[in-house]
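Let us work through a complete example step by step.
Step 1: write down the sequence.
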Amino acid sequence: MKAQVFRGVNQLSYEEVPLPQIEPDEVLVQVKVVGLCQSDIKKILYPLYEPPRIFGHETAGVIAAAGADVKGWKAGQRAIVLHHIPCMHCNYCLNENYSMCDVYKNITTTAGFTPSGGGFAEYVKVPGHIVRNGGLMEIPDGITFEQASFVEPTNCCMKAVKKAQIQPGQTVLVTGAGPIGLMFIMLVNYLGARAIATDLLPSRIEKALNVGAAAAFDARDPDLAQKVRETTNGMGVDASLLAVPSDKAFFQALDCTRKGGKILFFAEFPDELEIPINPNVIYRREIDLIGSYSSSYRLQKLSADIVFGKRIDVDALVSDRYPLSELNAAVEQAIKPGPDTYKILIYPEMA
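Step 2: predict the structure and record it as C-alpha cells.
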C-alpha cells in the first residue's frame, strides 16, 4: 500500500509499505479521508520524534478486515478511528484527566513502523485496546467521510469549552479565526453563548462573522479592548479561548476578560516562549488561567452527536483537498496559509 512516511525533519516520502497484518482482536481500516492537524504539522517540521513514522489521526474510512475475535464490527462498515483511548483505571483516569493517562498518550493505531496514528496511508491498523473500548465509531447514513473526520477535532474543542465552563448567555473571546477558532465559534453558539473573534486577515474576520460570531475585529486594532467592552456592557468577556500561540493574543485576552473570568490556552506555544506577567493581575482580578490539551474520553459520544447531528456546520470549515501523494504541498499551504485557507483534508484515493 502507499503511505507518506516521515523520514526526518520536514522529510516526507510517498512510498510503498507493507499492508499491516492484524491480530485476532484487531481491525484494518481503509482510509477514505484524514484531516491535516496542526499537531501533525508540528511533528513533521520539528525534531520531536525519531523516524520512520506514519502520522495522521483525524481518520474516517471503511473496515477492510476484522480479526476473528472482534465483536460488533465487520468488513464494509464505515467508521472513524479515535487514536487515543485511556486505560480508565489509573489515577489520572479516575480523576477524569484522561489525556494525561500514559495509555492515552501512547498512540497504538499504525500503518507501519513506530505507531504514530497511521492516517496518512491507504490502510491503518486499529489495535484491540482501541477496538474494545470505543475507539471505533460507526458513521451513520447521510454523513460523509469528510464530515465524520471532524469528530476528533470537535472533541478537542468541546473539551476546551467545557473546561472554560461556558454557559448560555455568556460572551467568549476567540483569538484566531483559523479552522480551530471557527469551530470554537460554532461550539460557543451551540452552547447558547456568543463569540467575539479576532484575526489578522480580513477574510478570516469575515469568515468568523459568516459562521456565527457576534462580532469580529482586527487583532491589531489599538482599540480592541475598548470595542470588546462596548459589546459586553462595559464588563469584558466571560472567557477567552486562545486558538493561536501568541503572547500578544494572551495579553489582549487579559485586557478583554472581565474580573472573575477565564483564559484558556488551547494552541500549543513554542517551548522557548515565556510570558512575563505580574501575578497580582491574576490575584486582584481573580482571573483563572486554564490549559486544555487533546480530547476527552467522556466527550466522545457528545462530539459524535454534534457532528453526526449536524449541530455545527463542519463543511464550512473545509477549504482545500489534496491527494495523499501531495501531502508535502498540503503541509506547505498549512504553514503559509492564503487568505482563504482553513481546514485541509487528505485523500488516499483522490486522483
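Step 3: interpret the result. DSSP finds 13 helices and 15 strands in the chain.
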